[in-house]
Design goal:
The complex is a heterodimer. Chain A is mainly alpha-helical. In chain A, 48% of the residues lie in helices and 0% in strands. The longest helix of chain A has 25 residues. Chain A is extended. By secondary structure, chain B is of the alpha+beta class. Chain B contains 6 helices and 12 strands. In chain B, the strands form 3 sheets. In chain B, strands 10-1-2-11-12 form a 5-stranded antiparallel sheet, with helices on one face. The chains are: A mainly alpha, B alpha+beta. At the A-B interface, helix 3 and helix 6 of A face helix 1 and helix 2 of B. Chain A: It comes from Anaeramoeba flamelloides. Chain A: InterPro entries: Ump1. Chain A: Belongs to the POMP/UMP1 family. Chain A: Keywords: Chaperone, Proteasome.
């Protein structure tokens, strides 16, 4: 992956799109990424982003471009994790900002990943897979 | 990050099955229900039958189809039972949170908007056809909500597979100056018409009368259609000798006392060791 165009102040570790752990997840198969997705799934993936973009657009036209800029800054600040890395954060201020603290969605009630019957692999192993640092190549 | 909610893992498999293996897609089943709502001078009357079907079989002969959204906002649901129950449950939660955070009593119109937006997001895949009725500080309201998210506001509504039978009764009997008793009897007749003339509806009649700061739920107000006339007396009694005996094996009863003594001896021996 060519990261030369993405020079930022914070240098990040290279992120690979597929997991290198072939025993666990099988050989990389890009076909699965190109297969059709359920229309509702497609909508859900883009929902949050599209809604906020529309909102900010509208607010910018009504109140001036400074206002959505201020809101984006607030959202950035609230999205920062305040805990040590690998510990889960509740992002309560982000929820209050977005107004989702009083919303109940199927995402909150059904298929809670904390209640899944599959045992999640430990965090270090997950990070190794994410960064492509596994032993098996 | 793994998120909750609906699971779409099998979609690609289904697409392949349909395209390559000529899999027959199961047809969408009709909503086997009759639900009715009527506005009268002081409030709203909601009615529903009580049969829950699973294909051609009656899964539950006496289920509850009228769900609570708020104290004075109730909703009758047709379609997939899981979808109607969980949708109304979720919207009831949201409405409660909203009314607590705004400090105002909930409005029927708010519930309508929440339900409509929720169902539209799922493009009709959540098959919940609802009749929403209630009385708030602005007066009595009655709305119908289709699974794709379209809504109508009408003085009398019927939905479900028995909606045609019920609507026939409503059209002949409705007048805008009805009182409570007239409205109750009209809804009762409409549901009965659905129960008698539609195969998907049956069981008993449930009524819900909502007025300003008052709600009365008449569960199983009419049970004449669910009592089966010809019923065999239970339990089944078979005369001895009615089944043929193929094999006989007689085992002798073992004395329990012996086994207990052996265990005690073993424990004593172990303790000695």
């Amino acid at each position: 992956m060519d990261l030369s165009g993405l020079e930022t102040e914070q240098k990040t570790l290279p992120i690979i799109g597929y997991s290198s752990d072939f025993l666990e997840n099988g050989l990389p198969n890009f076909k699965t990424q190109t297969l059709p997705k359920h229309p509702v799934e497609k909508m859900q993936i883009n929902k949050q982003k599209n809604e906020t973009e529309k909102q900010y657009n509208m607010l910018g036209k009504v109140f001036g471009s400074q206002y959505p800029l201020m809101l984006r800054l607030e959202e950035e600040i609230y999205s920062q994790p305040l805990r040590l890395p690998c510990l889960p954060s509740s992002y309560l201020s982000l929820e209050v900002f977005r107004g989702t603290d009083i919303e109940v969605e199927p995402e909150d009630l059904y298929n809670d990943p904390n209640n899944s019957p599959l045992i999640q692999p430990p965090v270090h192993q997950q990070m190794e897979q994410y960064l492509g640092m596994t032993d098996l190549k | 990050m793994q998120k909750g909610g609906f699971n779409f893992d099998l979609y690609q498999r289904n697409v392949e099955l349909i395209e390559k293996n000529n899999y027959k897609v199961p047809k969408t089943t009709k909503t086997g229900t009759t639900i009715v709502g009527v506005v009268f001078s002081d409030g709203v009357v909601l009615g529903a039958d009580t049969r829950a079907t699973s294909g051609p079989i009656v899964a539950d002969p006496n289920c509850e189809k009228i769900h609570r959204i708020s104290d004075y906002i109730w909703c009758a649901g047709a379609g997939t039972a899981a979808d109607t129950e969980n949708t109304t449950g979720m919207i009831s939660l949201q409405l409660e949170l909203l009314s607590l955070s705004t400090g105002r009593s909930p409005r029927v119109r708010t519930a309508l908007t929440l339900l409509k937006n929720f169902l539209f997001r799922y493009h009709g895949y959540i098959s919940a056809a609802l009749v929403l009725g209630g009385v708030d500080f602005t007066g009595p309201h009655l709305h119908m909500i289709h699974p794709h998210g379209s809504t109508s506001t009408l003085p009398y509504i019927s939905m479900g597979s028995g909606s045609l039978a019920a609507m026939a009764v409503l059209e002949t009997g409705y007048n805008s100056k009805m009182g409570e008793e007239d409205a109750k009897s009209l809804v009762h007749q409409a549901i009965l018409s659905g129960i008698l003339n539609d195969l998907g509806s049956g069981g008993n009649v449930d009524l819900c009368v909502i007025k300003h700061k008052s709600m009365e739920f008449f569960r199983n107000i009419d049970t004449t259609n669910s009592k089966r006339k010809f019923r065999k007396k239970l339990p089944y009694m078979f005369k001895s000798g009615s089944t043929k005996i193929l094999e006989k094996e007689i085992k002798e009863k073992m004395e329990k006392m012996e086994i207990v003594n052996e265990k005690e001896n073993e424990i004593e021996e172990l303790e000695e060791l």
